[in-house]
């Protein structure tokens, strides 16, 4: 989905409420279903078709400057050659004109974040990471109050 994220001076509760409304509206327009179908191409499409789909999705005229992807992974341990996979390090590609990519993958009860930044556009990715950690603490506290 392509959407504008509220980044102004808002409480976390107001920010999440606005995101919920916006994403709910987009889901009702079926934009999320179309994106899901595109993601499903990875199961059978040749790499050249996936590259073309990626270029279509990364149209610089769309005005997007951040790419965020959330991929649910298996919620049980995976093994290779008898060794257990302990962590997942996701990667979000940067498309033309995008300064930051955030990939989130869940695995075995944990969530893993991967940040990719163009230092010419986002020279302070470490500061963004610190803000992301603070926001996670705020969200956790908010969820605890709601439970």
Explain what the structure shows.
The protein has two domains: 48 residues, no CATH class; 83 residues, no CATH class. Helices cover 41% and strands 18% of the residues. Strands 1-4-5 form a three-stranded mixed β-sheet, with no helix packed on it. Strands 2-3 form a two-stranded antiparallel ribbon. The chain is globular, with a radius of gyration of 17 Å. The two termini are 28 Å apart.
Cα-to-Cα separation, first versus last residue: 28 Å
Q: Any idea how many domains?
A: 2
Shape: globular
Main beta sheet, described? 3 strands, mixed
Strand content: 15-25%
Which characteristics define this entry?
single chain, three-stranded mixed sheet, globular, two-stranded antiparallel sheet, 2 domains, 147 residues, alpha+beta
